[in-house]
Amino acid sequence: MTVNIDYLYFDLALLAAVVSFAWPEVTLKDFRSRRLWGVAAALLAPWFVIDQIALSAGIWYFPAEGTLPIRIARLPLEEWLALFGHTVITRLVLRSTIAGGQLS
How much is the pTM? Predict the structure, then answer.
């Protein structure tokens, strides 16, 4: 079985580009923030539900040949990474750009 992981490469490249804008302002303390991870988990919950409804209704799907074989609750690993990654990166970019890094 051949695995096509173009989606994963695209997503990682997009996240890397966005991170590059905020990276000078990001510290390890940011990644240890309970607030950051709490907000990420709270925002992940509704998107998880939407994904599950869409999968059940056949609105979208994740083909086995286009994603990694690792699945958690019917979602491929890269979908989980994208859901958490986009939330965390967006929060860090907003914190570093709005009000000169004064957003906490």
Answer: 0.62
In sequence order, which ranges of the chain are alpha helices (DSSP H)?
A: 6-22, 28-31, 34-57, 77-97
* Rounded distance between C-alpha atoms, residue 85 and residue 80, angstroms: 8
Residue with tokens 């009000």: 99
Q: Which residues contact 80 (CB under 8 A, 6 or more apart)?
A: 72
Measured distance CA(48)–CA(54) in Å, rounded: 10
Task: Give bridge partners of residue 71 from the DSSP assignment.
Answer: 76
* CA count, 13 A, side-chain hemisphere, 56: 7
What is the residue whose two structure tokens read 């303390």?
A: 29
- Domain ranges in the chain are 6-101
- C-alpha pair distances (Å), 77 with each of 11, 49, 102: 12, 16, 33
Q: What is the pLDDT of residues 27-49, one digit of tens each?
A: 777 778 888 788 888 888 888 89
